[in-house]
Amino acid sequence: MNVYLLSLLVFSPLLGIVMVALMPKKEERTIKQFGFFGTLPPLFLSFFLCSQYYSGVALSIFDIKLNWIRFGNLEMYDPKLFTVDFELGLDGLSLIFILLTTIISSLAAIASIYIKKEWKGYYLLFLILEIGMLGVFTAENLILFFIFFEMTLIPAFFLIGRWGFLEREKASYSFLIYNGIGSAVLLVAILILFARTGTTNITALTQMMTMGGVSLFAPISGSMKYGLCLAFLVAFAIKLPVFPFHSWMVRVHAEAPPSIVMIHAGVLLKIGAYGIIRFGMGIFPEQYKSLAFTIVLFGVLSFLYGAFLALVQTDFKLVLAYSSISHMGIVMMGLGALNEAGIQGAIFQVISHGLIAALLFFLVGALYERTGTTMLPKLGGLAKSMPIFSGFMLASGMASLGLPGMSGFISEFMVFLGLFKSQPLLAAIGVIGLVLTAVYVLRAVMLMTFGKNDSLIEKEKWDLRGWEFLPTLVLLGLIISVGVYPNLLGGPLQGTIEAMMLALGGR
Amino acid sequence: MDWNTMLSYDWGAMMPEFIILGTTMILSILDLFWPKHFNRRKLAWLALTGIILACLSLISLLSFETVSILSDTFRLDSFAKAFKLLLLFGAALIILLAEGYEPQEGLREHRGEFYYLFLTALLGAMVMSSSGDLITLFVGLELLSLSSYILVGMRKHDRKSNEASMKYVINGGISTAITLFGMSYLYGVTGSVNLGEMSRTMAAMTDGQLQYIMGLAFFMVFVGVSFKIAAAPFHMWAPDVYEGAPTPVAAFLSVISKMAGFVIILRLFLSLFLTASGDTFGALDFLDKNNIYIASLAGLTIIIGNVVALRQQNLKRMFAYSSIAHAGYLLVAVATLGGGYFLLDTVWFYLMAYVLMNIGVFAVIQLLSSQSGSEDISILAGMGRKSPYLAMAFTVFILSLAGIPGTTGFIGKLNIFLGTFITEPGHFVLAGIMIAGTIVSYVYYFGLLVQVFFRPIHSEKVIKIRPGLHIVLIICVIGTILFGVAPNIAFDFIHDQFGDFTDFISSK
């Protein structure tokens, strides 16, 4: 049973897919319900895994390995050569990402209630997207990882292009092309590794690259290792996104339907961070170490660039988009710090931003549903007409700027703690960004909630109601509990981070 | 040659060819003598039966050892078996396409010819894959070419079809002449037309002068063949011909004819030039020294195919360029020789993927264009809402052509990449061009999907699918997904049945 649990988890959204597919097109209510129910099996399974973990079960018992593909006919050299197995596995890091995925998917499925047309296609793609995300975080070899990685790309393309706002097609195209380029770079790197070593298993590759394994056909030279490490970094930096590669993500944030942005900002961007940790840092620790300065530099650049641009935006969605870039800069800074505090802070920041961005975009969705706009000049005075909404908006804004007691504070604190130790100069420059963050968040929230605005006619019962409290309260609860008791995340991550530090030469 | 020698040949090895030949003859006689009012559409099912029978007899031959009959002119080795299987499979799908083909003005009394000409072309391709010497190879090539010239011009009252046929004849004639000229050089330097003997002579040839002539022959043959597979810079005919030809014929040209082109390339280049000596010391093999030319043509083909496809508004022209690009991807495998480990199975697998996805796409195009009378990409608009299942099938084919994981096209591309990276130094530039081409292809492939899913409905007319097309679509969708998710079925089959194709070069 244990062996199949992970496959069950990854493919459990299929149940929902079948249910939705069997529904007639017009049954809006039932499809929405089934779509939401479709996200529950993975949610419960991930809770079950989590409870197993906390009751002291080793996560490795869930690993599965089945023979899958054998390329070429090279059995006479070594029967395992050029085979790709179907192998899924779990460790503390992936467990946390799995939880993030299942929780945000379920909440985004609730937020999808605002979708106005073609619910059937929407939920089908939505659930396929969830399979892809779950697969990415459990894949134990690079080919499988890539397959799931691309599996998130195609549904997201359609979801943005079909159900988004006005400029949706342009957004979905730039999403496709940028991510396509990223995937291409990733694929080349994966295949060079595969062709030269004959395996794609992450553990085996890590060993070969660090210890120097036997090369069968052609060796991987030192400079090629640099190239490969760089290729992984660039591919995931596009996904994250880091400063020069960010323009697609701004468009997606602005044009995709808010429920999809919840997933996009909450989970999809995080694949970039996950990839850098797993592959960049994991497989090529030596090379990664020597690139650390550049990584931090780009981190600081993104952090400041995002914060500056967020300061002048008039569309609230764009403020959030640039703030995402800025926050992903913090992740890069932490990952480049090369010490325990920095890396732990970076992972905390990934999770914390996932939760905060999901919450903010849920609120954006609720707001757009009522006012039909997210332009800051047109909004205002919401504190009067929607007091509860404004309260939550302020709370999530505070989380975003890193108020102590919330998850954002812990992660930023740890990142800067780590960075001041290893790169004090860049860290000092980065601190400016913290101030800017406070300014743009407060500015945006103030413009929305206070002040007067006559264009919005005050209506009765405009405020959040009923089921809308569920996602808001769950997300806010998680943000606060991580902020108050960070060991909630720290525990599972401990093992992974220690292993990383060991490979990096522990400092 | 007396009667006893004739009888001593193992004619069973030619069984599939005989079945196809027999079916062709029956079809032509029936077509001649049946009364005019009789609906000749039924002949398609007869043709299909012939192909299936040939396929079955080929399957029963799979376990046979390599046979070579008619004084080594006809070989049934694992290479021939593997590629004949693909050819028969593709041809069966195309006959089903042709069964449902109904142009605006109708095919009228030519419908009968339409079916048996496919069979003669198929016969040519099959003979080519089995040929053990230059003459058989050339006869097979001509049989294929002449039949397809007529097929292209099948819509006698359509101006474009006539133009296409004319273009195809002239271009094809020139390229055949060049190939033949090259072959005559080969005969000149080796004094034989038997591939095995030629290979032995060429391997021992260290005279620089003769090697120069050999090089000339190589280029001329390659030019002729790159016409057949529509590789740049000899690809110009493809878009015009595809546009003018009846849709099943365009599918035939882009799949079977291209496959036949690769069969010649592999037959000739692997058996002759791979082991031929490339310098006066006999230290370097000919193909090692000269594969840079194939590589640069492969790169050029990928770039031209993908970039020009971006600007096409006509579906058939777009897929003509897309098929040019795919020929480029396959040439990458040939140019790198699959790194020595991933050649024949790679090419075979990619061609299989290509048969499935491309015939699938042409089936959809045929369906939509015969309904609306146009071939503009706008006829796809709104298909997602009007007929969601057809749209889903189309999406599967397009994703596979674009090389998205989960489809056969991805596994095929993966295989080619492995071959480019495995050697030292790796063919990084070529791989880079290929991956860049793939990205560019996203733009036009996904442009089609945008039409299908994001645009308002083009015409409310209900799309009626004939049973033949239904079968094609179902087989192609299932195959594209199945071999994408579980490619091992195909890999194990080919490795178990054909091993490393070791009998291909040796045991002449």
Give a quick set of tags describing it.
heterodimer; A: 507 residues; mainly alpha; two-stranded antiparallel ribbon; B: 508 residues; 20 helices; 2 strands; globular
Strand residues, percent of chain B: under 5%
The low-confidence parts of chain B are none
Quaternary structure state of the chains depicted = heterodimer
Terminal-residue CA separation of chain A: 40 Å
> Which descriptor suits the 3D outline of chain A?
globular
Biggest beta sheet summary of chain B: 2 strands, antiparallel
Instruction: Give me the side-by-side strand order of the main sheet of chain B.
Output: 1-2
Main β sheet profile of chain A: 2 strands, antiparallel
The helix/strand series of chain B, from N terminus to C terminus, equals HHHEEHHHHHHHHHHHHHHHHH
Encode the helix/strand succession of chain A as letters.
HHHHEEHHHHHHHHHHHHHHHHHH
Distance between the termini of chain B: 21 Å
Give the beta-strand count of chain B.
2
Would you spell out the secondary-structure blueprint of this structure?
The complex is a heterodimer of chains A (507) and B (508).
Chain A lengths: L1 H10 L1 H10 L5 H11 L1 H15 L9 E7 L12 E6 L3 H20 L7 H20 L3 H22 L4 H30 L4 H11 L9 H18 L7 H9 L2 H26 L1 H6 L1 H21 L3 H22 L2 H32 L10 H4 L1 H15 L5 H16 L1 H26 L19 H16 L2 H17 L4
Antiparallel strand pairs in A: 1-2
Helix pairs in contact in A: 1-4, 1-6, 2-3, 2-6, 3-6, 4-5, 5-6, 5-12, 5-16, 5-22, 6-7, 6-12, 7-8, 7-12, 8-10, 8-11, 9-12, 10-12, 11-15, 12-15, 12-16, 14-15, 14-20, 15-16, 15-19, 15-20, 16-18, 16-19, 16-21, 16-22, 18-20, 18-21, 19-20, 19-21
Chain B lengths: L2 H6 L6 H19 L9 H19 L5 E3 L4 E3 L1 H22 L11 H20 L3 H19 L6 H32 L4 H9 L4 H21 L8 H8 L2 H27 L12 H24 L5 H22 L7 H29 L10 H4 L1 H15 L5 H14 L6 H27 L12 H19 L2 H11 L10
Antiparallel strand pairs in B: 1-2
Helix pairs in contact in B: 2-3, 2-5, 3-4, 3-5, 4-5, 4-11, 4-14, 4-19, 5-6, 5-11, 6-7, 6-11, 7-8, 7-9, 7-10, 8-11, 9-11, 10-11, 10-13, 11-13, 11-14, 12-13, 12-18, 13-14, 13-17, 13-18, 14-16, 14-17, 14-19, 16-18, 16-19, 17-19
